[in-house]
């Protein structure tokens, strides 16, 4: 236990004299290294938290928490299945859908898309398309109206706007006198949505459920039923309960099965980045070790005098632990301050740098999202700061132990 004596002497040793400028320089480098490491670690973890939060929100704003379908990939009595599913208290929304693939063509421009047939009023219960419309509304999708809602990236790619005519080609052949030809239908663009996620903005289109049934010839069946829950973390449990309640012939899949690997990969990547960036702090702690070793060598005569005055080896060890800990604490506090400050303002800072250098650091077609989000979590800050303080304390042990082993007679022999 460090007593006031060790604390006062250790703090006094941290103030360099005229002949100790080299030690002060090493101390400064150590503090800067710890500050840089802590700030970088907090900022990177916050950005990765932000990526995970944004991607989770945007993905689950398009896909369902739980999907119910038949064993053959079709659902014929979706309303009855919906009534049965809504007996579960965690189900707060449901919507049928028909899912297919197709090509959207306008002139010479063609793009492959996923086609989702929906009922606009029902879809509003499980997805966020209605709140993300930049032109038109989902209610503009009417049965037999053959209207289509496209993503903003696809609209830009094909130069589409409300009122534009496009052809939707589906991978189903129809027999004609000229042979088998792919089936297609002309649609009118009635709306544009923007989910701020390139994968969906460029590769997903919405049409009315009745139009999709005619286009894909589903014979009165739908592809499945999408469910929204009050707590998405309960999705695995709820999907099992719903599947058990529906009985044989039905399957229920939750979002953790469809996208769980992606979010687990993000979590693993965050852990790996924490370990890698913690090495920056560890390298800075080696500077603390070097500084204390130099101090111990320089202060051997002072140590010997303290020992002759009655200071115990334990007191000597405490003095140098205090000196090293001061460097670690200062570096950790300053690094935590700048790390939190940077994490809270990283989005604005990145936008400023993008304007200054006329370049994009986060390309939407590469990183799925077009901005750099940040989600500062205080448990991460506490973990990083705690790890730094522990490393700082550990770095003082060897030099402090070495100082406690100085023999007064040997140290004062040539004085």
UniProtKB/TrEMBL annotation:
The keyword Signal does not apply. It is a multi-pass membrane protein. Residues 275-408 form the ABC3 transporter permease C-terminal domain. Its main location: membrane. GO terms for biological process: cell division; lipoprotein localization to outer membrane; lipoprotein transport. The chain crosses the membrane at residues 20-48, 272-296, 316-345, 381-401. InterPro entries: ABC3_permease_C, Lipoprotein-release_system, LolCE_TM, MacB_PCD. Residues 27-243 form the MacB-like periplasmic core domain. Keywords: Cell cycle, Cell division, Cell membrane, Membrane, Transmembrane, Transmembrane helix, Transport. The keyword Mitochondrion does not apply. It is found in: Cell membrane. One of its GO terms (cellular component) is plasma membrane protein complex. Belongs to the ABC-4 integral membrane protein family. LolC/E subfamily. PANTHER family: LIPOPROTEIN-RELEASING SYSTEM TRANSMEMBRANE PROTEIN LOLE. This is Cell division protein FtsX. It comes from Candidatus Muproteobacteria bacterium RBG_16_65_31.
């Amino acid at each position: 236990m460090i007593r006031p004596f060790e604390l006062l002497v250790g703090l006094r040793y941290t103030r360099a004299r005229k002949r100790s400028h080299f030690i002060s320089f090493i101390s400064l480098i150590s503090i800067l290294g710890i500050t840089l490491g802590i700030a970088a670690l907090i900022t990177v973890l916050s950005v990765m938290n932000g990526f995970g939060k944004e991607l989770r929100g945007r993905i689950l704003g398009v896909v369902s928490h739980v999907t119910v379908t038949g064993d053959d990939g079709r659902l014929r009595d979706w309303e009855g299945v919906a009534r049965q599913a809504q007996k579960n208290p965690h189900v707060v929304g449901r919507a049928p859908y028909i899912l297919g693939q197709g090509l959207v063509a306008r002139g010479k421009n063609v793009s492959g898309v996923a086609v989702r047939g929906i009922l606009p009023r029902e879809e509003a219960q499980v997805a966020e398309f209605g709140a993300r419309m930049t032109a038109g509304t989902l209610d503009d999708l009417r049965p037999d109206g053959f209207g289509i809602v496209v993503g903003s990236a696809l609209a830009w790619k094909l130069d589409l706007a409300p009122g534009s005519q496009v052809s939707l080609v589906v991978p189903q052949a129809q027999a004609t006198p000229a042979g088998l030809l792919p089936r297609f239908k002309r649609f009118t663009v009635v709306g544009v949505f923007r989910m701020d996620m390139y994968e969906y903005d460029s590769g997903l289109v919405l049409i009315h459920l009745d139009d999709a049934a005619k286009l894909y010839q589903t014979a009165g069946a739908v592809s499945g039923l999408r469910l929204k829950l009050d707590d998405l973390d309960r999705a695995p449990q709820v999907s099992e309960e719903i599947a058990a309640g529906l009985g044989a012939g039905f399957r229920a899949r939750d979002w953790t099965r469809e996208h769980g690997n992606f979010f687990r990969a993000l979590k693993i990547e965050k852990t790996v980045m924490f370990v890698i960036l913690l090495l920056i702090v560890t390298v800075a702690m080696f500077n603390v070790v070097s500084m204390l070793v130099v101090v111990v060598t320089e202060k051997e005569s002072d140590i010997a005098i303290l020992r002759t005055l009655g200071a115990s080896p334990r007191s000597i060890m405490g003095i140098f632990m205090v000196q090293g800990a001061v460097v670690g604490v200062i570096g950790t506090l300053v690094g935590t301050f700048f790390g939190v400050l940077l994490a809270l303002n990283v989005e604005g800072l990145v936008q400023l740098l993008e304007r200054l250098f006329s370049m994009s650091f986060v390309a939407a077609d590469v990183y799925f999202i077009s901005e750099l989000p940040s989600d500062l979590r205080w448990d991460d800050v506490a973990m990083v700061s705690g790890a730094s303080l522990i490393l700082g304390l550990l770095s003082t042990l060897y030099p402090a132990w070495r100082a406690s082993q100085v023999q007064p007679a040997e140290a004062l022999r040539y004085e």
